[in-house]
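Q: What residues go here?
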């Protein structure tokens, strides 16, 4: 959960702020500096994702990274600060279009970090594209999002076309599974990812099932898994369903390895599943905290905890937009600025291909050990 403790930000943040100034060949003059206080745009960036509801932790982790990027920027540009506008979707795609309109109608908003989830991205991004409002998602991983021709769509991490094969590879090569069961939650994210894993595992998939979000009784799925003889189970979905699912499987005596993805990489999974979570493998196209030690130290100083899932990607996504504002870009000119962006961030080299996909992609495996999620290395 997000800490409410606030600490003085150490020198590590100052170093991050210095590194976040400008882009390759870019002008880093602020609007205020180039034309005085009257030229200051009083711009905002938006954070679009779940900040309340069952998947709020994932949104809050991203928001923490965004707020840290804003702290860094505003210290350097005290005469022309940028503010954050939050659009709390609760992770619900049905709320996304109205929230997108609200962001679009606020002409001070020059870019969006998000939408955080794939379903809400599918629902909101057509409106953002039509309005010319840039979105940089730090966490929505459905591959099809990049196939819509949206000129305003950018993704600061690898998609499930890379995560799915990596998960399948780990299941085959590291876990040595020969009988894998696959379950999805019917969501844009969960089903899309599970289908890729199914395809890559091929004939070793011994059974399939689909559950629904907010489901709590998994007895039918438990029966199917235990009777299949599966030695591994891949679940495409989120932590609110993953926790009771694995608890009920363990209670039924299933001994196989539970494999999940980034939608479950959240402490709430462990808090709710308790000892049943032990040994769970989690894949994620997100970097471990110690990959960026200066960012890790700055984040820990502000929030009294290590960066969590997509905190670094949230920081990087916000920094790109803030660099654009520093270079004098507004909503209309931000798209071309982001397209041409090429600079090292805290998680990776921040650069995009013609479809808005990240040009630098890595997928890591994590494991639940002694009640904590620990990195077990990059899946090559």
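A:
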């Amino acid at each position: 959960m997000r800490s409410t403790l606030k600490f003085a930000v150490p020198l590590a943040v100052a170093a991050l702020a210095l590194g976040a100034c400008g882009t390759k060949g870019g002008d880093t003059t602020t609007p205020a500096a180039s034309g005085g206080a009257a030229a200051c745009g009083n711009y905002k960036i938006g954070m679009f994702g779940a900040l309340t509801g069952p998947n709020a932790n994932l949104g809050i982790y991203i928001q923490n990274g965004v707020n840290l990027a804003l702290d860094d920027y505003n210290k350097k540009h005290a005469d022309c600060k940028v503010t954050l506008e939050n659009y709390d979707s609760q992770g619900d795609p049905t709320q996304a279009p109205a929230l997108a309109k609200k962001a679009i109608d606020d002409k001070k908003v020059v870019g969006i970090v998000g939408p955080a989830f794939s379903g809400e991205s599918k629902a909101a991004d057509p409106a953002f594209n039509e309005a010319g409002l840039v979105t940089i998602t730090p966490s929505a991983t459905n591959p099809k999002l990049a196939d819509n021709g949206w000129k305003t769509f950018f993704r600061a991490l690898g998609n499930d076309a890379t995560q799915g094969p990596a998960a399948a590879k780990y299941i085959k090569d590291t876990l040595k599974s020969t009988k894998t069961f696959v379950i999805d939650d019917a969501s844009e994210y969960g089903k899309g990812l599970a289908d890729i894993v199914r395809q890559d595992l091929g004939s070793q998939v011994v059974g399939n099932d689909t559950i629904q979000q907010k489901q709590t009784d998994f007895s039918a799925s438990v029966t199917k898994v235990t009777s299949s003889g599966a030695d591994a189970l891949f679940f495409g979905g989120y932590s609110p369903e993953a926790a009771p699912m694995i608890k009920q499987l363990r209670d039924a005596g299933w001994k196989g390895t539970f494999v999940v993805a980034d939608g479950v990489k959240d402490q709430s999974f462990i808090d709710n599943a308790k000892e049943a979570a032990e040994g769970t493998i989690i894949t994620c196209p997100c970097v471990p905290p110690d990959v960026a030690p200066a960012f890790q130290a700055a984040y820990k100083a502000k929030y009294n905890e290590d960066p969590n899932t997509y905190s670094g990607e949230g920081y990087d996504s916000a920094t790109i937009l803030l660099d654009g504002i520093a270079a004098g870009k507004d909503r209309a000119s931000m798209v071309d600025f982001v397209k041409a962006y090429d600079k090292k961030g805290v998680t990776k080299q921040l650069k995009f291909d013609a479809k808005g996909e990240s040009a630098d992609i890595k997928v890591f495996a994590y494991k639940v050990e002694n009640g904590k999620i620990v990195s077990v290395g990059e899946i090559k």
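A: Context that may help when evaluating the design: Confidence is low (pLDDT under 50) at residues 1-15, 17-38. Residues 161-284 form a domain with the Rossmann fold fold (CATH 3.40.50.2300).
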